[in-house]
Amino acid sequence: MSPNEPAALRIIEPVSGSADVPVVGMVGGGQLARMTCQAAISLGIWFRVLAGSAADSAAQACAGTRLGNYRLLEDLRDFAAGCDVVTFDHEHVPGGHLDALEREGIQLRPGAAALRFTQDKLAMRQRLSGLGVACPAFASVRDLAGVEQFAAGRWPVVLKAVSGGYDGKGVWVCHTPAEAAVVLGHGLPLLAEEYVAFDRELAVLAARSPHRQGAAYPVAHTEQRDGICREVVAPAPGLAPGRAAEAQQLALRIAEQLDVTGLLAVELFETTDGLVVNELAMRPHNTGHWTIEGARTSQFEQHLRAVLDLPLGSPAPTAPVTVTANVLGGDPDIGDRAAIYHRYAHVMAANPAVKVHMYAKQPRPGRKIGHVTVTGDDPGDLLDRARRAAGYLRWGKEDGQ
Amino acid sequence: MSPNEPAALRIIEPVSGSADVPVVGMVGGGQLARMTCQAAISLGIWFRVLAGSAADSAAQACAGTRLGNYRLLEDLRDFAAGCDVVTFDHEHVPGGHLDALEREGIQLRPGAAALRFTQDKLAMRQRLSGLGVACPAFASVRDLAGVEQFAAGRWPVVLKAVSGGYDGKGVWVCHTPAEAAVVLGHGLPLLAEEYVAFDRELAVLAARSPHRQGAAYPVAHTEQRDGICREVVAPAPGLAPGRAAEAQQLALRIAEQLDVTGLLAVELFETTDGLVVNELAMRPHNTGHWTIEGARTSQFEQHLRAVLDLPLGSPAPTAPVTVTANVLGGDPDIGDRAAIYHRYAHVMAANPAVKVHMYAKQPRPGRKIGHVTVTGDDPGDLLDRARRAAGYLRWGKEDGQ
């Protein structure tokens, strides 16, 4: 391995001065931008990424990478000036900056008004409840008395940061007032939510374009541990057709009512009483990675088509069942990128049909660094294959079950 | 559309100093490198392209692009110094340079000895004939007397440039000595070949790794016009299973005997007497684009796996039939990139399942600027859909059949 190279060859900038096809800019340099870049290459459009660091996942792949800080309006403004449409691979751009960009005529998709509901969970709950969408009971809480009043003796209670959470961060399941007191001690604006005794978690992805065309993917079953999605099976095995259609209609209705342009991911609890909305995201989503191989149109291409106001692609499945398993960073003594690469040989030899997607991120415990996908007929068999592949990439042989 | 942007944001160079995962370098900045870049992103490896211009198809997409001239040994050497493995998206690197790089310890895959058979068609014919592989009758010719002696009164005769041809360039079907005289007038080293009266043209792709693992894809039917591949149907409809297996075995055998590492594309004539080898290429190939959606492992991923000596991926099909149609540049008055982009709406609305792959190349008449792919059950229906989509992207509505 010889990463060093002479400086004799020029580092180049792609030519984009011909105003020929649209320029889509994505704020955020993570794996979602990295995989959107792959889809942009097929569409032959210009694609730019605003990354925080040249080491970011998307920065390593995308020719159209710009370095900047999404928390600074001037960096956002400079980035947007080179784009026809600006979209996002995360929901952490300050809302005030989004408003300012829109006032300046920048085409944000989704727009600031829609994105607000991914940045403010209280606003999201209030809005969805106002639409009659089933949500957990919720209340804004400021102190322990407020939490205890909300709980009314029924514990556990879920406390959530009103903004800024992801991958289980910013969500606390509190079994006692004492646990709640610790969370309150963080000093964050908090929301209390009913703990939902769900049968399983589902996720449904829909896309909506400025033309108001909508398309919903088959509903997936998602398996979460510690607030992080580990596995996705699509379509969700054994889901009643009526309930699947209900979930898809729900996603399309929320997308319409919230004026989402681009993708909307709706995470749901399936309970004995029906579907309850857990979280929303307005971008490609970890629970939709199965669509790369498992649907006619990947979620990344679909997001681009939606934000470009192109006709949406078919969300039809390409196989009876598709399973993805996330690869999480493991013990730092075992798993750097080189060590993980050396395990490719085993994973690929064991299953020549497994699709490996690695994000070029340095492994840290619990960090999503890749995913694997398998397609076929039998969910149990596919789950077994995907778990083995992901587990082996993550830890080594002994964790490969 | 706003291609201009302020210079405030830094143009960045991907971080590749950590010697963590291998660096694959591909010489050539065309669409094959562009699509190989997409596969490299999934594998999480470092991928570099040596492009002649920042406007090259791959240069617009690939973060790891270097500008240089593949005809210059020093540019090749500088490029290779940053790579663990060097491979190619065309066969035009001078053979002497390949030899020199190998002597200096550069890992070329395929190696110079194998590549020679894609650069020198006379050497290819001699070698294949020596292996007992069915080829058209051939002879090196230097003058009209030589051509007439070869023809022995049976016209047409095919004249081919010994090196440098592609997409029908460098191939002439001569129906009379007068036509042959015109070709001889070009002053190129020429090969005369028997004109094969074929039933149809087939193509088979195989991969071979340094470990000597081999994998062959289903055999495709290719439809060529003016020496340019227009349509590919995979698997070839109605091909006898025994003949399909024969073609796959042939490709694997040639790959082994010629010590190919990476992909080998074998273009074949199917005749009433059996299979006859037409051309060889040692790289991803236009006749293999169907594998992006139509096979478990795309040819681009497979090439990377082979040159990295990773276990090869499954070449199994994902659908009963996959059809691709090339999009060729048309009348320059009609089709610049912007005009073609505006037709996306129609193509995508008419068929939400068609996959559009555009190469970000300026259209010139006859130039391959993209392809479309559809998968399904009925070859006739799929051909119709693919032709409509490609024809519409190419020319406009009136040519859309």
Describe the structure.
2 copies of one chain form a homodimer. The first copy, chain A, is an alpha+beta fold and 401 residues long. Chain A has 3 domains: 23-108, Rossmann fold, CATH 3.40.50.20; 137-194, Dna Ligase, domain 1; 200-399, D-amino Acid Aminotransferase, Chain A, domain 1. Helices cover 31% and strands 25% of the residues of chain A. The first copy, chain A, has 13 helices and 17 strands. In chain A, the strands form 3 sheets. In chain A, strands 9, 10, 11, 12, 13, 14, 15, 16 and 17 form a 9-stranded antiparallel sheet that branches. A 4-stranded parallel sheet of chain A has the order 3-2-1-4, sandwiched between helices. In chain A, strands 5-8-6-7 form a 4-stranded antiparallel sheet, sandwiched between helices. Chain A is globular. Chains A and B meet through helix 1, strand 2, strand 3, helix 2 and helix 11 of A and helix 1, strand 2, strand 3, helix 2 and helix 11 of B.
Specify Rg of chain A, calculated over alpha carbons: 21 Å
- Count of extended strands of chain A: 17
On the 0 to 100 scale, the average pLDDT of chain A is 92
SSE series of chain A? EHEEHEHHHEHEEHEEEEEHEEHHEHHEEH
Uncertain runs of chain A are 1-18, 396-401
Broad structural category of chain A:
alpha+beta
- Bin the helical content of chain A: 25-40%
The end-to-end distance of chain A, rounded to whole angstroms, is: 31 Å
- Count the helices of chain A. How many? 13
According to CATH, the homologous superfamily of the largest domain in chain A is ATP-grasp fold, B domain
| Biggest sheet record of chain A | 9 strands, antiparallel
**Largest Cβ-defined interface:** A-B, 83 and 83 residues
CATH topology (level 3) name of the largest domain in chain A: D-amino Acid Aminotransferase, Chain A, domain 1
**Gross geometry of chain A:** globular
Instruction: Give me the oligomer status.
Output: homodimer
CATH class of the largest domain in chain A: Alpha Beta
